[in-house]
């Protein structure tokens, strides 16, 4: 049971009585202050003061425009730079050569999405700047970066037609299995983790062109 006191002086007197019964001693001189407030204690000048370290929150300055019209949801980055531009179909619900189907309606998209070459683990060679999602497909527009030999080589392969296929991959752990029929898997919820440029893709519907 917790005893509540009217003010700090009453609590101090109760503490003194208890200490006397236990054979202990307390400093009887109270710290000055009004009866209805907590006592003020002047801090030592050399007492170290510890302040919490707050890491600065980095917020992307890139703006995103979100529209919905005629059953098509479009997400687009605003004020995109870069002259190396492509457009095409990143994914459809067609059963791919790996034996699974990704429902475009269940795709979650957060721009920018990295563009890779053949699902490689290296740095992105570009990024998706526009994504339109319908019941049938996911259409994207992308920019291929400039500034190093790998990006320039990728652009040459695009220009000469060597790379003309797209492959949209779901982010690890983001897919939800809707069912398995005759050994084929169907996913109704997933997040677009990256889009790759390929010589031949798993989904025959997914092709792209230079804008």
Give structural attributes.
211 residues, mainly beta, 2 domains, 12-stranded mixed sheet, elongated
Q: Which value, in Å, is the CA radius of gyration?
A: 32 Å
| Terminal residue distance | 77 Å
Return the structural class.
Answer: mainly beta
**Tally of DSSP helical segments:** 2
The figure for the number of domains is: 2
Strand content: 35-45%
> In which range does the helix fraction lie?
10-25%
Q: pLDDT below 50 for ≥5 consecutive residues: which ranges?
A: 28-59
Outline the structure in words.
Strands 1, 2, 3, 4, 5, 6, 7, 8, 9, 10, 11 and 12 form a 12-stranded mixed β-sheet that branches. The protein has 2 domains: 1-50, no CATH class; 64-210, no CATH class. 12% of the residues lie in helices and 36% in strands. It is elongated and about 95 Å long. The longest helix has 14 residues, at 8-21. It has helices spanning 8-21, 149-159; strands at 64-69, 72-77, 85-92, 100-102, 107-108, 113-117, 126-133, 137-144, 165-170, 176-181, 184-198, 208-210. Strand 6 (113-117) and strand 7 (126-133) form a beta hairpin. The chain is built from 2 helices and 12 strands; from the N terminus they run H-E-E-E-E-E-E-E-E-H-E-E-E-E. It is mainly beta and 211 residues long.
Please render the helix and strand layout as text.
Blueprint: H1 8-21, E1 64-69, E2 72-77, E3 85-92, E4 100-102, E5 107-108, E6 113-117, E7 126-133, E8 137-144, H2 149-159, E9 165-170, E10 176-181, E11 184-198, E12 208-210
Compact summary:
This protein has 211 residues and is mainly β. Helices cover 12% and strands 36% of the residues.
